[in-house]
Design a protein that fits this description.
With 630 residues, this protein is an alpha/beta fold. It has two domains: 182 residues, Cobalamin-binding domain (Rossmann fold), CATH 3.40.50; 337 residues, pyruvate-formate lyase- activating enzyme, CATH 3.80.30. 36% of the residues lie in helices and 14% in strands. The chain has 26 helices and 24 strands. The strands form eight sheets. A nine-stranded mixed sheet has the order 3-1-4-5-8-9-12-11-10, with helices on both faces. A three-stranded parallel sheet has the order 20-21-22. β23 and β24 form a beta hairpin. The longest helix is centred in the C-terminal third of the chain and has 18 residues. The protein starts with 6 loop residues before the first helix and ends in a 6-residue tail after the last helix. The structure holds iron/sulfur cluster.
Amino acid sequence: MFIPTTPEELRDLGWNQLDVILVTGDSYLDSPFVGVSVIGKTLLAAGYRVGIIAQPGVSSGAEIARLGEPALFWGVTGGCIDSMVANYTASGRRRNKDDFTAGGLNKRRPDRATIVYSNLIRRYFKHTKPIVLGGVEASLRRIAHYDVWSNQVRRSVLFDAKADLLVYGMAEKTALSLAERLCEGRATDDLPGICYVAAERKPGTLELPSYEEASADPAAFTEMFLGFYRNQDPRTAQGLSQRQDTRWLIHNPPAPPLTEAEMDEIHDLDFERNLHPYCLRNGKVRALATIRFSIPTHRGCYGECHFCAIAVHQGRQVSSRSEASVLREAEKIASLPDFKGYILDVGGPTANMYGSECKKKLLRGACPDRRCLYPQVCEKLRPDHGRQIRLLRKLRQVPGVKQAVVASGIRHDLVLADRKHGLAYLREIVRRHVSGQLKLAPEHSEAEVLRCMGKPGRESLIAFRNLFRRLTAEAGREQYLTYYLIAAHPGCTQTDMEALRLFAGRELAIHPEQVQLFTALPSTVSALMYHTERDPFSGKKLFVEKEAVGRERQKKILVAKKGRIRYGNCGLQHCNGNTLKQMLQSDESGGRIMGKDKDVKKEAKKKPSKTLKEKKEAKRMKKSGKSGEL
Ligand code: SF4
């Protein structure tokens, strides 16, 4: 069943009033990949009457008021992506297309949607029930944060939205507890995973530098950020307080991640895996083409890449589903009338973190003084791909499934660090679960830039590339690695981009035609570096390319065709008569975080050049008709 979104649906259900109304910046897709739909279905399953208003018009009250006023609370989200990221490219251009809007045109989601929708509710319902913010936008902006679109440190979104509460992270448990407390008329201030505004500092919390101090002084902003960053483990985090104007933002410790049984319960909910008919009147949603036939196996990521927002929202602990639950979902997908036999993705933020976590972290929390994957894979992590192998094998047995593809990116260093199952895992996916290309995210090649990104060095990438080529040749398949690369990250210079270009050509045998242009996502370490121009951990000064032309130039260094550009000590020089401006204007792409890169994809179709040794080995194996061992 879809969550109702029209008065007619409420009438059909015999509901006079809803308990909770959820407002979202995306069209309403009923899918386990869409947060608002997961929260709505969780509350529905617990017996609450829930409605959804998707992308309401903001010029009148007609749409925001069409389901009336809720009995418990309003839930407001900007959608699956921060609305500023969704609406603008990394170069600051307005996006015309939108994967989460029916019809595909980006004209229904306002900038800073969380604030706009919250104020819209206040305009038409003066003294209404609590307005609760949630989703990615609220999570990333829950404390004072640097906002690259306005180039300023902004207050917590709670203040600008004039909302009552903010639930952060993947908030199923928090939303349920909140509904229960509000139903019983109990206080909500002690709930984990929430932020709220108070007149005074909460006793026992860590006091962060105030918003005023943090916005005026980069050193105070760094201190504030590190206090926030180091208090995100649900087992060890201290509550935080930050003065903003005359009031206080109170940040409670995170809610505990879901257990395997709780994850299964969520994914056993009855999702339509489709667009609500009310939204379908405006056309199809592009995102559905992928997520309708894909399965999320886990959430969270312990990679801690500095530019990525996943850990800020989903947390650094991986929570996995049971194999049985994933298989039940595969059976459901296989029974869909338009299923052609291909599960398009089995994965999560990092596909090969499924079913593997650090035992020490699960007991006592993440280490405050070191990281799980950087600079090397921690020896205590003991990555184990055994469960993933079993899962993939079982998925192949589901009637109607011809192939289950691992399309999410994988961490190559994790594969190499798993002495027991790493090789078997890679062999398994190379033979049966890669649809032409496997995605890796090295992001760069130069040590200093990689350090700023929190990414491993190039040695593990080359070792993995060699292994992949070898196993691919053994399998007799034609498939390739594709690489996500970033230009203009803090610490990255034109010289670094020139070195990356050389590395990509010589070592990876690719000529990328499109790369992501760095976007400073709120509350990430990279955004902190971008704003302060310093490494927050060493205090060292960093070069940060902030000029639009310089940023585009970094990107062009990597993607420019041979012959059109030559490089010298003076940087980029144009050789074929066009002006640099024309070149920059010709590129409308923006580098969407976690987005697909069609030109890289195009590039991947080209055969990578093989070394002489590899050619000989492939010839030998072809002749003998058997595959070799590593
Ligand atoms: S022991 Fe290692 S893997 Fe475990 S939490 Fe600490 S750094 Fe991460």
